[in-house]
Amino acid sequence: ISHETAELFSPAFRMFTRPLYSIQVKGKAEEVLLCEVMWRPVEDRTTVAGYRPKARAAAAVLRLKYRDAEVARRRDNDSITIGRDQGCGLVVADQKASRQHCTIERRQDKWVLKDHSTNGTYVTAEGDSEMLLQREELTLRKHGWIAFGQPRSGTTELVEYFCD
């Protein structure tokens, strides 16, 4: 349960709760502290090291460049869909791209690319080998390129990304 919900309990019931950790919840700007309701005997409980608030992550900014367009994402729970469909946040003109080819979403202080395509997504992080994602996820790092349905060397329709 959330800490906010636990605070609504009477003092007698509240003593059976303990804080665990915070999580990101879609639709909420701030993290939500989770609490456990302890219903087992004391000797059966896992000892929690104690609630430690996480240091606030640096403002993770994602910048995407495609042709003359540049878009940025920076908020918690922010995401962008890339594909041929005009409803996508970033529309690409590659015929090997699916209508809704992939999504990049923020999780904690990271940006995660999720492939939804028929032909796969090729991701090259600067200094690393190219990776093919097929219905998989990958955490984007620093700077690199995204190609749709074919290796980077076979196309000029690339999205360049920057994780600042």
Please give a structural write-up:
This protein has 164 residues and is mainly beta. It has two domains: 3-44, no CATH class; 62-163, Tumour Suppressor Smad4, CATH 2.60.200.20. 5% of the residues lie in helices and 40% in strands. The chain has two helices and 13 strands. A six-stranded antiparallel sheet has the order 4-3-13-12-9-10, with no helix packed on it. The longest helix has 4 residues, at 3-6. The two termini are 34 Å apart. The model has no long low-confidence stretch (mean pLDDT 88).
Structural class determined from secondary elements: mainly beta
Shape: elongated
Strand content: 35-45%
Supply the number of helical segments. Answer: 2
Q: Sheet with the most strands?
A: 6 strands, antiparallel
Intertermini distance: 34 Å
N-to-C SSE string, H for helix and E for strand:
HHEEEEEEEEEEEEE
* Name of the level-1 CATH class of the largest domain: Mainly Beta
